[in-house]
Specification:
By secondary structure, this protein is an alpha+beta fold. The protein has two helices and five strands, in the order ββαβββα. The chain has helices spanning 23-31, 85-100, and strands at residues 2-4, 17-19, 35-37, 55-62, 69-77.
């Protein structure tokens, strides 16, 4: 599966798309849990999208039944150690809300 990337800011990311099995996204998907990296420069799994990214958190989004990863919430920051436990809890709660709207047909339900 190819991951689509949506971004804001100046410049195009170095990796605009890549397999969901690669990088931090791949780790979050395979481990079925959030990956919170305080310093991406020290993590060999990190695939550079923007040179200004210093920290990143990825939360897998599951289908309604919780069996399959259907996407991710991926947030990066130019500051190291940007995402504390409260930020991770908030993003995991966002995942639970998104999951409620997934109809398991491969598309979000309305």
């Amino acid at each position: 599966m190819v991951r689509d990337l949506v971004w804001s800011g100046t410049g195009t990311p170095e990796y605009p798309t890549f397999l969901m099995t690669k990088g931090l996204i791949g780790s979050a998907s395979a481990e079925r849990r959030a990956v919170n990296v305080a310093d991406v420069a020290s993590d060999p799994r990190y695939l550079t999208a923007f040179g200004s990214t210093r920290s990143e958190i990825i939360v897998p989004i599951f289908d309604r039944d919780g069996r399959d990863v259907v996407g991710t919430i991926d947030v990066g920051s130019g500051q190291p150690n940007a995402f504390d436990a409260a930020a991770q809890d908030l993003l995991e709660e966002c995942e639970r809300v998104i999951r409620m709207f997934w109809d398991n047909s491969g598309t979000p339900s309305s």
